[in-house]
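Usage example:
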Amino acid sequence: MNLPDPIKNFIDHFSKLPSIGPRQATRLSFFIINSGKKEIEEIKKSFEELEKMDICEDCFFVFMPKNNADKKCNICSDNQRNHKIIAVVEKETDLISLEKTNKFNGVYFIVGNLQKNGMLGVEQKNRLTKLKNRITKELGGQAEEIIVAINPTTYGDFNATILSKELKDFTKKITRLGRGIPTGGEIEFADEDTLGNALERRI
Amino acid sequence: MNLPDPIKNFIDHFSKLPSIGPRQATRLSFFIINSGKKEIEEIKKSFEELEKMDICEDCFFVFMPKNNADKKCNICSDNQRNHKIIAVVEKETDLISLEKTNKFNGVYFIVGNLQKNGMLGVEQKNRLTKLKNRITKELGGQAEEIIVAINPTTYGDFNATILSKELKDFTKKITRLGRGIPTGGEIEFADEDTLGNALERRI
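Running the assembly step on the lines above writes:
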């Protein structure tokens, strides 16, 4: 059966968003139509609000600019933080997770979604160039420490190696996040790789 | 860490949509901001389009009204279809699936998402009252057949019984969809319930 154009359009658009497939987009369209015009207006408004957000020129995290001259996020414009220690993360949600620990007083750098083919994308390369330029200009050529905070997965390890190679000349020290048994986890149920890493990196 | 208000707002709104949780909504917000203002405008437009849709007064399926007087969907306004045979489905996507078979020439009635407590919601009751009134007025009090096309799950069976009880006085015949081994399925891998049903309903 032929669905009406507005629904087809909506499905086309929403299927492109991450982790939303055509089936979920279809269900969403029906749910939204049934919610009524007032609800649709509210959703539209929430998109309008997103348009006001900007992306930090230093770390690429999103932020709400106070005025037109405002180009940096709260973290990057915070003088209390150590700008010589930079945590390189893949995405915004990783930054949020690290920030929630309250254990990191450095700054961040979001490199953007990494590919699985062992190559850096155009966007990643551009961002890294900006980071290198900033380190050269603001930190005299070398950061104190760059933490390559990429997921400890097969692809993550691969990409972390590439990033470390790219950045090694721009920092005195390059580190990755510790690996081992998650806090609250049990040895009995840890997989071999995790346990192996926990052994190798024993403290 | 405190997320900016526009993002919090967006997450609040989107987490309310079916099968979108706060984590997915968070990732979505970052993805959308990074997509840029043009993409946000396009998404907003696709919501505006949805506002033009209406809900059929007979079957509650969504449709694109040709003018203000247009109150019925394509199926319900099609005189070639048998309006005396009514398939009661839970949701729009079930209607679409049945319609795709090209094996049904009757009309539909979307009762709306059924609860799991064995009670009909207010919305369901209102819709059923409208269906009963229509059968009384347009079909002389009884349909030829009502197919209670509700999922053959535990809750679905339960709800189908409730719906059958509600509708039995308004139809000459009340049926459910056939049950058995799915076409292409193998006896060896069918679960006991499915196989039991296939035996009981052998043809």
